[in-house]
Amino acid sequence: MGMLKEFKEFAVKGNVVDLAVAVIIGGAFGKIVASFVKDIVMPPIGMLLGGVEFTDLAIVLKENSIGPAGEELGPVLLTYGIFIQNVVDFIIVAFVIFMAVKGINSMKKKEEAAPAPPAAPPKSEVLLEEIRDLLKKG
């Protein structure tokens, strides 16, 4: 019974829940960035390169061949274009995250720079000031 209780405590800790939320949001964010790169960034770059898409770039290491059972095997390709695409994706994701962290840090600095309101004087001091003011009047 103790192990079940420990697991429950572990599973509902804030860090585990925060991590789960981060993974889910990260996955969704990854899809958005992949779509941004594929559908927005790469078409103009491909157009500049004369219609070449990075994912199509490959070196044929071996042409079509016949397998041991007589089936036709496809060519063996070194698909360096997919690697280039993944590098571009990474650079864009890293830049977006950098900009987000930079924006968050600048907001934190503004919060820290805002002066804290002065602390209220102790109640005894307020009472003494009121007595002093009453004595001045009287």
Automatic annotation (TrEMBL):
Main location: membrane
Gene that encodes the chain: mscL
UniProt xrefs under Pfam families: MscL
Compartments in which it is found: Cell membrane
One GO molecular-function entry: mechanosensitive monoatomic ion channel activity
Family membership: Belongs to the MscL family.
Transmembrane segments: 16-37, 77-101
Mode of membrane association: Multi-pass membrane protein
Protein name: Large-conductance mechanosensitive channel
UniProt keywords, alphabetically: Cell membrane, Ion channel, Ion transport, Membrane, Transmembrane, Transmembrane helix, Transport
UniProt source species: Algoriphagus aquimarinus
